[in-house]
């Protein structure tokens, strides 16, 4: 592509940024204003016009999906070979660095990533070993403490707990936790970043090498970097590199994970020569969608403030649908998608976004029922499923016997008679002698501490792992995985479970073998071994178990994972008080602004059509709640919204009906004017109805809460 076409399709401000002389820059702009486009064109510009080698460029994005997309976009505009360019997420790049320099980072070559689930298990074990009560020290809180400190770059030795017993104990947990991780060769997500940062600080020759190499550093979604990520970039940049950061303070949605919007200010202080460029034209969304989003975000205080306008037409107003419950919501969404398909459009243009991962199940079921392909990004990913983690646990232990988290996971899965007492002795010995669980087991067997039965069970387990790892050398990765699934007893265990869920688990295990077969060794993994590389891939990438990349599929994801993406048609599901904003955000007040930013992110993903849905009642996390529409809906000016009415047949009683007290639905037994009792709203009178059969709705005038429409099939009304 020639130079002029690199600037084609850009407005003046965007051109200024793309074609700027080599320097540092801050691009501060609202959603859909072309920040990511500028960043990718800038990379192409650096290569083609400034003759910079891809080798000298490092680009950081926020999710694996965004990184993959950026690679494609750059390849398209630059058209060249960019194999040696580093494009990835902070975690992905830091992990790559640690793999390459594992010795300098003080890690064993076989080090593995501890995901947050396993991290929590390990913390629970540590609480027990320290005799700390889980009620007083909730494991999740301890986990938050450890990760929070790491995000700030703090090791236990840097922390002064002062005279506060709680703080002292949390610190003690952190210390013991870190020691066990180090012994077992495990790094958690925060550790990946912290260690990569320490690598810069402790090994100047390595830092120098990368400082010489990376002359250009570009960071997308900068508003969501945390302290350690920013420090990593700043140190790497040194005094020579040109750093371009792009971001939008209104889209900062990871404050709860330590992201700091203040990094935007820090950047300007640390790179005083950096020029700030603002983009104001939105190219993504129609007028209605953009104006509604702008109005919503205006409710937040403390914004840097941005103007955002579009030349686009107003388009269709935002569709607002009030569902009876979550199933009705799913039905409505699927109905709209079917209509979209009927117009000859694609499934992949539709995205369903939700606040909580747990919401996806009902949507998935409805899609499956209708035979529509879908793909889930983030969240309950394939590699996070229980059965997959069990199988991976075996593989991890075969790869590294000292992996305590894996040991804990599979030692008695499936049950092989290794009871709680035996495990307690193992853990105690491990702690006392600073051994890993595997080493402790070897020692206890040698010293004949266990009873005959327990000893046999432990020995049996260890022999199994040893035999499987010996065999491993002779098999390819997927045959080894298959072998492990059968010989570990996992397959038999899940086969013995009955029902749909168990069947799905077996299918997932089969899918794992397929995943192993299609695994391609990454560039940096040459000498780390295939199994090791596969395990890291599983922990980092979390592949998707649904439709493959070539199938046209509806996209499902949490609002958080939708950042940076765009879709012609977007559904936001479950926009209800207590769910979105979440109950916690409502209770803690100061997190409301962040929820509103999340809502802004969600709405601004839509290009042509946006639907916002809420349900009057919702069954989630095993309980049913009656909900009110989210306050965010109320913050959208009415002129941008169109309420969607139910499309069921209205069958009112005909004039010839002898009495108005007709049965509402044939067999419901309810009549107009009848007094009814509702479990939550109390007593009231039926005043109206519409729909028929499963769709029947009644209007009840409740004595306490006034009039409400309820769906008969779900309202649990009783006559009284
Ligand atoms: P977000 O804040 O959501 O990450 P963004 O600022 O990164 O958004 P992009 O994703 O880069 O925005 O761009 C939004 C859309 O607008 C994309 O489809 C992009 O191709 C298009 N776009 C950007 N700039 C222009 C332009 N000058 N002319 C036409 N289309 C443009
Ligand atoms: Mg972007």
TrEMBL record:
Catalytic activity: Couples ATP hydrolysis with the unwinding of duplex DNA by translocating in the 3'-5' direction; ATP + H2O = ADP + phosphate + H(+)
Cited InterPro entries: DExx_box_DNA_helicase_dom_sf, DNA_helicase_ATP-dep_UvrD, DNA_helicase_UvrD-like_C, DNA_helicase_UvrD/REP, P-loop_NTPase, UvrD-like_ATP-bd
EC number(s) from the headed UniProt entry: 5.6.2.4
PROSITE patterns: UVRD_HELICASE_ATP_BIND, UVRD_HELICASE_CTER
Segments forming domain UvrD-like helicase ATP-binding: 8-286
Binding site residues for ATP: 29-36
Gene3D superfamilies (alphabetical): 1.10.10.160, P-loop containing nucleotide triphosphate hydrolases, PCRA, domain 4
Annotated ranges, domain UvrD-like helicase C-terminal: 287-564
Key words of the record: ATP-binding, DNA-binding, Helicase, Hydrolase, Isomerase, Nucleotide-binding
GO molecular function, one term: hydrolase activity
CDD domains cross-referenced by the UniProt entry: DEXQc_UvrD, SF1_C_UvrD
Top EC class for this record: isomerase
Superkingdom field: Bacteria
Family, per entry: Belongs to the helicase family. UvrD subfamily.
UniProt-recorded name of the protein: DNA 3'-5' helicase
Source species: Shewanella surugensis
